[in-house]
Amino acid sequence: MQETPRGLRLHIGLFGRRNVGKSSLINALTGQAVSIVSDQPGTTTDPVEKPLELAPIGPVLFVDTAGIDDDGALGQARVRRTEAVLERVDLALLVLGPEGVSRFETDLAATLRDRGTPMLVVRNKADLAAPQAAAGLGAEALAVSALTGAGIDELRQAITRLAPAARLEEPRLAGDLVPAGELAVLVVPIDLGAPKGRLILPQVQVIREMLDSDALTLVVKERELSGALERLKTPPRLVICDSQVVLKACADTPPTIPLTTFSILMARFKADLDRLAAGAAAIPRLKPGDRVLIGETCGHHPLADDIGRVKIPRWLNQYVGGGIKIEVAAGKDFPDDLSPYALIIQCGGCTVTRRAMLARLDRAGRQGVPMTNYGVAISLLQGVLPRALGCFPSALAAFERAAAS
Ligand SMILES: Nc1nc2c(ncn2[C@@H]2O[C@H](COP(=O)(O)OP(=O)(O)OP(=O)(O)O)[C@@H](O)[C@H]2O)c(=O)[nH]1
Ligand code: SF4
Ligand SMILES: [Mg+2]
């Protein structure tokens, strides 16, 4: 893996009315022709993403959006796609043209403030006219010209200044669970679903965190787990397994050794494990005919025995006794209206920001729809949830409270 994965980058979105120069600004900031520019309003129709190393911040992802204003010809779909970007970025650049501030900018600024997303106001096209005041938007404003490059360095510096606070703090994936000098055993099945020639992101990330905290890592397949544990003079501090082998890993690991799954670690890292654990309490209440939404944040090609599309639906139907209607929301699209669903089961979200995952969780919460994640759901369906949540007492308590209520 050469590049920093998308989900670990600072996501910076550009928003504003059509033709104010959003795409031109991305090109000026990156020094590359990332996005198509033209004097035709409405040139950008779909969000355009550009990963980049932006010194001294490091890896960022710029997201250019379609301009939104009151032109009736604008498709609702386009507006929705821009709004969806609004909820997943860490930092927003609100771009103004010489026309200055209108209702669109004040509305956008209010939405961003409500979400707690830091923003910068960028008064573009300063070469054409003296930039108008941007008072009332409640954010630092800079005058720039994407055309001449004036002010672009200052904009880069302002982004650099806001970056540390913009990125929502993520708990560590597992580094805090294993002290220096202690051992973590990772159980990684190598089946048809395993990507060729590499490990998946959460596995790589855990190994990296163990190195960062001077801990040790042993990586084995599920068949080798019990033999490996027998050979160790000192038991490991933690066993972390792929959710799909959690039943076997639990059986092969003495109960005195804490055990959890990569997906449960992702629930804590990317979202909120307590809330996702509480959501799993809805599983025993499901009845035939209920609709369950599977949320995936990437658009990977489903495999023959795909976890989200085949295995979880199968285990869920076995558990409930059949008749569960499964729907999948793949990629960045996630329905606004979640009310038809009795439960949402969300993937680890390795490709998106923590803000994006929390936005999904908040939306489900507002609509009173329980939401859990793959790892929590699978551990419950396999009957080992208390074991898999053993190192997270508050999550286990949240599940038990929700189950009792
Ligand atoms: N004079 C001047 N023209 C600019 C500047 N920035 C952009 N433009 C021009 O403004 C027009 C629109 O630029 P775009 O970058 O396509 O604007 P956009 O905001 O991405 O537009 P949509 O994708 O349609 O929403 C183009 O003709 C650009 O060349 C600037 O700083 N000064
Ligand atoms: S389905 Fe979710 S967790 Fe799995 S690879 Fe895609 S984004 Fe990552
Ligand atoms: Mg554009």
Core attributes:
405 residues, alpha/beta, Rossmann fold, 3 domains, six-stranded mixed β-sheet, four-stranded parallel β-sheet, binds guanosine-5'-triphosphate, binds iron/sulfur cluster, binds magnesium ion, P-loop_NTPase, [FeFe] hydrogenase H-cluster maturation GTPase HydF, GTP-bd
CATH evolutionary superfamily of the largest domain: P-loop containing nucleotide triphosphate hydrolases
Q: Shape, please?
A: globular
Give, in spatial order, the strands making up the sheet with the most strands: 2-3-1-4-5-6
CATH architecture of the largest domain: 3-Layer(aba) Sandwich
Strand content: 15-25%
Bound molecules: guanosine-5'-triphosphate, iron/sulfur cluster, magnesium ion
A few lines on this structure:
This protein is an alpha/beta fold and 405 residues long.
Characterise the protein shown here:
- By secondary structure, the chain is an alpha/beta fold.
- The chain folds into three domains: 6-166, Rossmann fold; 175-263, Rossmann fold, CATH 3.40.50; 271-404, Rossmann fold, CATH 3.40.50.11410.
- Helices cover 35% and strands 17% of the residues.
- The strands form three sheets. Strands 2-3-1-4-5-6 form a six-stranded mixed β-sheet, sandwiched between helices. A four-stranded parallel β-sheet has the order 8-7-9-10, sandwiched between helices.
